[in-house]
Structures are given as structure tokens and as C-alpha cells.
Amino acid sequence: MNLSQYLARAEISISKETLFKLEQFTTLLHEWNQIHNLTGAKDLDAIYENIVDSLYPVTFIDPPASLLDVGTGAGFPGMALGIYFDRTDTVLCEPLNKRASFLKFVIMVLELKNITVAKIRVEKLQHTPFALISSRAVTDTQLLLKITTEVSDKNTQYLFYKGSQVFDEIKASDNQLNYAIVSRDKRNYLWIKT
């Protein structure tokens, strides 16, 4: 199956231009990953599945004015979302050198004008509050909310890519959260609204 078929199966509609950029990203990640071990997604199908996992929330959220992805790693979900939301000011926060270098390379090759990389821990990031903050596999919900307080405000929404632990994390949260959990396969998307 190709990427277009994976996206269609998940009912994610996409333009030809965006699909082309995502395919270029896939190729670059596949090449770099063989040398630099950026992600556990070792073959094209695994990368496609990660892209679909990253993009599934576009079926239920509106394009944000700005996006911060915490701990982007090899590009999931932040790079995929930034490519899809090509008018969204997107910052990929990734402190590790080789991953940040890869993300910067993708931005340069694909000429992605709306995406920048912050090679820094999110706690040290200085930026106006973001409209949406996303994160996958970084830490628990409570800590994510805490470490992003300097780059969020009362209008900021959150999109956290979680597994089954999300239900326990919500129960343990000190905050009164206005949220929805959208489930797909083994993924639970925690969407915290304003």
C-alpha cells in the first residue's frame, strides 16, 4: 500500500501537493534512519502508519493559527502536522542534536516556510502563547501541562497522543479539564479544549 491508500483508509483527505511533501518526508526519514537510527519506524509501511497516526486528528480539529510540538523526535506528530497545516506557524521543539538536524534538513529540502525547529527543552522556550500544543510519547499529561505553562494561555488547546494510560492520567490530574478522547486502534488522542 502507498501513503495515499493509508490516508484514504483513515478517511484523511489531502491535497496532491501535501501528499507529495509527505512522501518526500517519508523518503528522507527512511534514508536518514538507516544511518542515524532516528525512529523505530524502520520501513516505509511503518513510516506511513506513523504519518496516519500523526494526521488522524485533522479529522476532528480545526487548523490552528500556531502549533508547538513538544519532543518532535523524527517528526511525529509535529512535522506531519506542520506539512498538513501549511498555513500554521509551527515550532518543532526537539533538544537532541541528530533529530533536530534531521528536522532542519527536511525543512530546507522541502522548503517548508511555516515550520521552524527549536533545539531546546520546552521549559526554556520563549515564544508567545501557541494556539495548539501537541506531543506524543514524551511524558504524562500533568507534567506536559506544567512544562508548557510559559508558552500557553487560557486560549491554548492541547493534543496529546496517548495509549491506554490516558484514562488514569486524566483521573490523576489536578486540573479541571475540558477534554475529549478520540480513539483509533490503540491510540487515544487527548484533545484538551479551552
Brief summary:
With 194 residues, the protein is α/β, with parallel strands linked by helices. It has helices at 3-9, 16-36, 44-55, 78-84, 97-110, 141-147, 166-172; strands at residues 66-70, 89-93, 115-118, 132-136, 157-162, 178-184, 187-193.
Observed structural traits:
194 residues; globular; Rossmann fold; 7 helices; 7-stranded mixed sheet; 7 strands; alpha/beta
Please give a structural write-up.
This protein has 194 residues and is of the alpha/beta class. The protein has one domain (3-193): Rossmann fold (3-Layer(aba) Sandwich). The chain is built from 7 helices and 7 strands; from the N terminus they run αααβαβαββαβαββ. The protein has helices spanning 3-9, 16-36, 44-55, 78-84, 97-110, 141-147, 166-172; strands spanning 66-70, 89-93, 115-118, 132-136, 157-162, 178-184, 187-193. Strands 3-2-1-4-5-7-6 form a 7-stranded mixed sheet. Helix 2 (16-36) packs antiparallel against helix 5. It is globular and about 45 Å long.
